[in-house]
Amino acid sequence: MRILNVNMYMDHVHGGGTAERTFQMSRFLTDSAHQCHILTLDLGISPDVLEKETTSHVTALPCIIKRFYLPRFSYWAIKDIVGRSDIIHLMGHWTFMNALIYYFARLLKKPYVICAAGALPIFGRSSFIKHVYNALVGRAIVRGANRCIAVTELEREQFLIYGVDAKRISVIPNGIDIASVPVKVNGAGERLGLPKKPFLLFLGRLNPIKGPDLLLQAYAQLPDTPYDLVFVGPDGGLSRTLQAQTVRYRLADRVHFLGPLRGTDKYQAYYAASALVIPSRKEAMSIVALEAGATGIPLLLTSECGFDDVEKCGGGFIVPPTVDGLKNGLMSLIAQESELEKMGHALKKHIIDNYSWESLANVYKNLYDEILSQHPI
Questions:
Q1: Which of 22, 79, 150, 215 shows a CA-CA span of 20 to 30 A to 60?
Q2: Alpha carbon of 323 to those of 39, 151, 216, 332: distances in Å?
Q3: Reduced to 3 states, what is the DSSP secondary structure of residue 71?
Q4: What is the pTM of this model?
Q5: The domain containing residue 169 runs over which residues?
């Protein structure tokens, strides 16, 4: 089976969780019987690195207008890439890349699936452009898919709103490669500039949708707490505002901004933290939650993160995406300080048992086989 995975950005700064999902999916689907080809933009990561780490062939189109992520491409080259594929996997929603491949998929009568990864609701900037995109092609892409892949049960409802038949929606959650989780390294926290005292961790882009502003406001309203707060991640438009608010709240000695951490360093931050806080206003299903949970720390996350299992398995707390909700959640974490280690162990076991990419890859293989059996090439 020849699978074409389409994601307009594959570096972690631009792509975040969708890049990680495409990366792991391509890696675990590639074997003696299956070949993956990744189509992306040339932003942030070189094709040779991706090919080495995923054993997939990679085509990176030059991005000529970064505001809208418009690529330069050859009609005949794209037609050839799509034509050599048995099935296509589109990631995200608001992308010219998806519209382009959708056109060729219809032209060449190729089956495709789409995983919007939480992108279907119109939220944030460019709402007018998104309405136009949906009217021109977005809704047609979603409704025309052989299967729509929801990351959570909540996202299933979002596909239904777009007019998709419930029978054509499959829920396949995000996953993690358990074997690749690095071990804890003694002294790594000091090397990375992490505080020596206990701290709560935020890891993600510093932009409104991820909610770091909500977290900072909630933290500022806490009574005296033994925990510092650490923000790790690239600037997404809020960095200066957050740092200015930290000074205004007189928390400059307790709130720390480290910038982005990658690979092993990211995991060492998880190991060093007392808990991870994910205050997102919107999120399909946080891969950061899986990564952190796999290291054995508890979570505090909002009800918009699509990972209610955290509370069900005793691995943390789910709260509304508001300042008051996060404040109450932080107070609950602090009140159960002696139980945090036990909560982290419960979450780690749950993730290992239910969110391994080895098992999720088999779910994809079975799904693709089913689609192809109904759509002979």
A1: 150
A2: 40, 26, 9, 14
A3: strand
A4: 0.80
A5: 2-175+356-372
Same domain, 201 and 340: yes
Q: What is the pLDDT of residue 68?
A: 76
Query: What number of other Cβ atoms are within 10 A of residue 79's Cβ?
Result: 14
pLDDT tens by residue, 241-255:
999 999 999 999 999
Number of H helices, E strands in the chain: 16, 15
Burial class (CB in 10 A: 0-12, 13-18, 19+), 135: exposed
Burial 279-309 (b: 16+ CB within 10 A, else e): bbbbbbbbbbbbbbbbbbbbbbbbebbbbeb
Round to whole Å and give the CA distance between 340 and 34.
42
Are residues 41 and 69 in contact, defined by beta-carbon separation less than 8 angstroms? yes
- Pairing assessment for the beta strands 147-150 and 316-319 based on DSSP bridges: unpaired
Residue 325 CB partners (closer than 8 Å, separation 6+): 218, 302, 319
Please tell me the total count of domains within the chain. Answer: 2
Query: pLDDT tens digits for 186-243?
Result: 989 889 999 999 999 999 999 999 999 999 999 999 988 999 999 999 998 999 999 9
- Give me the residue label for tokens 């996060």: 326
Of 5-19, 54-68, 224-238, which gets the smallest average pLDDT? Answer: 5-19
When pLDDT is averaged across residues 322-332 and rounded to a whole number, the result is 96
Give the Cβ contact number of residue 183 at 10 Å: 9
Say if 29 falls within a structural domain.
yes
CA dist 165 and 344 (Å) reads: 38
- Note whether 364 and 290 are same-domain residues: no
More confident residue, 244 or 306: 244
The answer to whether residue 377 is domain-embedded is: no
